[in-house]
Records
---
Amino acid sequence: MFKMYRSILILWFISLNFKNIKCQKPSKGPDLDCPSLDKGDSYTQSEFLSRLAHECRYDKLLLPSYQTGDAVDVHASAYIYFIQPAEAHDLNFKFHFLLQLRWTDPRLAYQLYSPERVKIIGGNDLRNQVWIPHLYMSNEQSSGLMGTDSKDVLLSIAPDGEVLFSRRLQAVFYCWMNLQKFPFDEQKCSMNLESWKYNSSSLRLMWEEETPVRLSPDLHLTEYALLDYWTNESFVKSDILNMRLGGGKTTGNFSALKFTFKLGREVGYYLMDYFIPSMMIVATSWVTFWLQADAAAPRVTLGTSTMLSFITLASSQSKTLPKVSYIKASEIWFLGCTGFIFSALVEFAFVNTIWRRKKAVNLKEVSSKYILKNALTPKLARKELQKEMQSDSSPQLSKSQSCSSLRAGGGGGGGGFNNFLTVHSMPAVSVPTITADEGDTNDQGGDKGKGAQAWTTMTPQDIAIWIDKRARLMFPLLFIFFNIIYWTFVYCL
């Protein structure tokens, strides 16, 4: 009985093992079902590429140098079609350019399999089958492909495995501008290319040695002139806390490329539409100096209209600028011109006030010092004038008295003069007789010899006209001096 059960168990185990062997599929070898590359010249380009990049021998998720562990050198170049600097308040510019990347993938070398084939060229379909470096523009605000994927993406594979990837892009890049010398400023903007997925130990970016960036001969700028441009290579450090690259999951130094260009703003538009009109408005405000001081209506109308016109001109220009904390060169010009126009209004108010005074003015000398002193502080000037007149008249009075005493002493024997001579035993001296008229004449001659001042009387109207005449010359000279300083600062500093 025991032998019978044992034989049944043996038969049952044998049957189970037979079923497992029957259901098990034979294992595939490494080259089993992998399309052959023999007779590669007889295949079409699509057939040959599908065999060359088949998943059995090519993994597009792996770096071309994954077997050796070396870094992949990716050479970049750009062809610029179009540059459009935006308005200053947007702080950006637009690029239309062709970006070309070149690297070598040994897995795609087909020279031994298809020696007659010169090059494999394709579009977006070929791009989806091979490894492409993942780059991004770190200072972009927006970007996109120009046209369609099949039209503006080109990829070619050389027989030695060199891959050339071309892509036409349009992008808006952020550019911080220094507007302290606006509109005579020069700006430096850049396009930054960085590796996103691989650090510098796996992928290195570098510019082509010859002409890394080329400009289209049809490239023209409107508001700016392209002064210079250059390229450089650098590294960007990333760590766990920095989510700038790779989502913060990859550390190390990431390779980066930068293309920088220098733009100079064209000032012709601002000269014709801002500076020259503002000069004309300031000069128009000087017309009030040729109008009579009591012509209040025309002088006020002319002064206020020029002020409002210049404010309107300045505000229309400032709308295109960002609100920055520092003072710009255009604002210095605005403040200077506003000061000249406002000073012309103040000058009119000053001379009109003087014109309406009633009392005439006695001046010791017709000069700016005495006229302006009397015009600004008339009461104080009159008091000082009275003191000066009294001080000038007192020496003449003392001189006439001394002459009278001298004449009286000459006739008697006991006068002071004779006593002086007697005491000192001096010889007799004949003293001339001086009359009051002669003394006055001699005094006047002596004062003239010493530069005595002639007193002048001016009416308030004369003073107002005198100030207007001086303003006609002073204001243009000061404005010319302001222009010399301003344009020296703009072009020399």
Note: The two ends are 117 Å apart (CA to CA).
---
Amino acid sequence: MIITEDDEEEISELRKNLFNEFEMKDLGLLKYFLGIEVLRSKRGIFMNQGKYILDLLAEAGMVECKPADTPIVQNHGQQIREGAKLTDRGRYQRLVGKLIYLSHTRPDISYVVGVVSQFMHSPQEDHWEAALRIVRYLKGTTEHGLLFEKHGHLEIHGFTDADWAGNPNDRRSTTGYFTFVGGNLVTWRSKKQKVIALSSAEAEFRGIKSGLTEILWLKRLMTELSLHSSHPCRMFCDNKAYQKIQSNMIELSTWKWIDTL
């Protein structure tokens, strides 16, 4: 059990009540929990899954493998190919399941894990090789993780992007976003869109919608926790078409009407 609170007296009282009700032992400050390591310093709190990665390398027999510079090749084109050789589904699902858990502290593999997760029902040899490349990338980045520092503010902002028709099988786009609170990365996601976008602007617009939804949820959560910020929330994107739509209220109203059909 993890207890978090900014009031030491409240923690002591809760701990006392738990000890009276259950047989429990106080292990002190959180250091390791379900494969996640927590390190503290004057700079802040650092979380990573280095030991979990080493265990994964040992289980996959890749302790001596050559590290990869990137988790996936550019323009990978991963898809289900007719007549391609299948790989062991159980083995593939176990490996990808572990990679999904690793992505809790590794946003840099979130996208590629989402890619290989699409083939869990019928993995092929190419998909297995793509999953192993992620493992080889992790071999060279075992010390990567998340650092939480104090920046003196609680500003919320996010970044969003989308690839148009990136999936070769169904031509659907993939949305990606990540959000910061107080200068620290707190949430991120990479997911295929539910419908087929007819243009790059539409794909980006849907991606921005997902990012804004996340920011509004964070804003409401912080309000419930009595954490208030005077700074406006900000969303960043690099799509010129969307920026022009946003700057022209007539075009924006037309887009909203089309989007609700």
Note: Residues 257-261 have pLDDT under 50 and may be disordered.
